[in-house]
Amino acid sequence: MTNQQTAKLILDRAKPLFKREYNVQYRIKVVYDHYDRQFNFYMIRYKPGHITRVTPLHHVKSTWIADLEEILNLIEKDLKLTIVFAGFEGIKWDSRNSYIQRPKRKVG
Fold first, then answer.
1. pLDDT score at 45
2. pTM of the full structure
């Protein structure tokens, strides 16, 4: 599956979940699964006073950061949501020299 097809699949699954409701926050969460060597995509719906809903969208059997970057760029063009990351501590983007997720500070 190409990166364009993957992004289209994620968008097709995320758009029906994105309802422009009052006082609701929507996010896409990307999790790097070190054990299965894949990227997992989730849609998070948060409304104060209600249960936070997490819906799995898709998983990508790749660990190439360049592929992830291309998929996210295609998603961000069409769906303007906040993207949060988990499991990317200390890993940098390929195109720019910045961290995807800041490394944890060592105490002591």
1. 94
2. 0.88
